[in-house]
Amino acid sequence: MMNENMTDGFQLDGKHYRSRLLVGTGKYRDLEQTEQAIAMSGAEIVTVAVRRTNIGQNPDEPNLLDVLSPDKYTILPNTAGCYTAEDAVRTCRLARELLDGHDLVKLEVLGDQKTLYPDVVQTLEAAKQLVADGFKVMVYTSDDPIVAKQLEDMGCVAVMPLGAPIGSGLGIRNPYNIKMILENAKVPILVDAGVGTASDASIAMELGCDGVLMNTAIAAAQDPVKMAYAMKLAVESGRAAWLAGRMPRKLYASASSPVDGLIS
After folding, report:
1. What is the pLDDT of residues 148-159, one digit of tens each?
2. 3: helix, coil or strand?
3. Helix 224-244, helix 31-41: angle, nearest 10
4. Is 179:157 a contact under the CB 8 Å cutoff?
5. Taking the model in full, what pTM does it have?
6. What is the pLDDT of residues 92-148, one digit of tens each?
């Protein structure tokens, strides 16, 4: 039973995925290291910044899809680097052309270059346009429960609140907001951004999240391949702990062995 629970997977846009860890492809030393780390992570969904990564738009440059085949991974184009709804929608349409009609995308619209915090107004507008255009939208947003519900009601297939600012490695700064989002959600909720190490990923899963998406926490580690493996185990461990149900917190001690009935 434990094996079954630990690998129970989740549904996204009608498809079953065994791994609840989603990973990015930026900031690695080279394509070889990218390939090794992602393989070690066990991830099945790999997100790609269309504005920064060649997936066929530059035929004379190395193509990421040569080492991460769409036959093996679900390629998730993202709109990293977009600061307006217009740019984000245009980027998703380009990705759909490059990937032969692929319509699952990760939407992010940023507010400024210093914080990389999401611009919620522009995100809502872009999501509205993309859903109307037939895209299956996984959306990066703030940890505001009201906004998260609006994005779900709009038709997004997954909502991805930040744990902390992108690339900060600060971990889950506001677990209470994440829990409120989870309580009201009928679509997968995945923590996106802010994870720094394996314990952060476990915490996200112990809260009840459906998955975790990360890039910098793996790529910026001293040993990205080993960290990718650590993150795989952390997500599985956190998921198993959530399924098991933690003990209640208590103010005072409670002996592991009862004192009643001791031999006198």
Report:
1. 999 999 999 999
2. helix
3. 20
4. no
5. 0.91
6. 999 999 898 889 999 999 999 999 999 999 999 999 999 999 999 999 999 999 999
The residues assigned a catalytic role are: 106
SS3 192: strand
Query: Do residues 154 and 127 touch, judged by C-beta distance below 8 A?
Result: yes
**DSSP label at residue 118:** B
Convert 113-130 to b/e letters by CB count within 10 Å (16 or more is b).
eeebebbbebbbbbbbbb
Among 120, 97, 98, CA closest to 110: 120
Q: What percent of the chain has pLDDT over 90?
A: 81
Residues of the chain with pLDDT below 70 are 1-7, 257-264
Residue with tokens 């889950």: 172
Compute φ and ψ for 105, nearest 5 degrees. -135, 155
CA distance 180 to 29: 38
Going by C-alpha positions, the residue among 60, 23, 55, 48 that lies closest to residue 38 is 23
3-state secondary structure of 197: coil
